[in-house]
Amino acid sequence: MKIHQALALTTVMLASALAFAQAKPEQQIEYRKSAMTVTARSMGPLSAMAKGDMPFNKEVATRHADVIATLSDLPLLAGAYGPGTDKGASHKSDPKVWSEPEKFKAAYDKFTSAAKALPAAAGDLKTLQLALGDLGKTCKGCHDDYRMK
Hints:
single chain; mainly alpha; elongated
């Protein structure tokens, strides 16, 4: 990511943090749903490249990896599961997110760690496949434990 893009993203993140702190629970729910949707949209091309369903493209892979890493690292996303966000709008989060906050945070931290490793791995198909496999395991684990069936 170029320095001006990083600075712009940081500015947006800080402004969002201020607004988010005052957001109603249903707004926080919509925020986390949106972040998960964007993450999934970036996972699609990466998974297709990893499986060989799409030609590997270093630039495209890096761009999508950067998106996932950035979204995973937003304190706002983890905060989007705060008090009151278990009600107020439709969502797929299991009530265990709020009854087991330490376990949920540990699972989320594993996701964040794997997501942060993704951009460095995106430059080569083999390393992308390995890193994406690690990330996918964290996604599956969290969805298995903390997403309503």
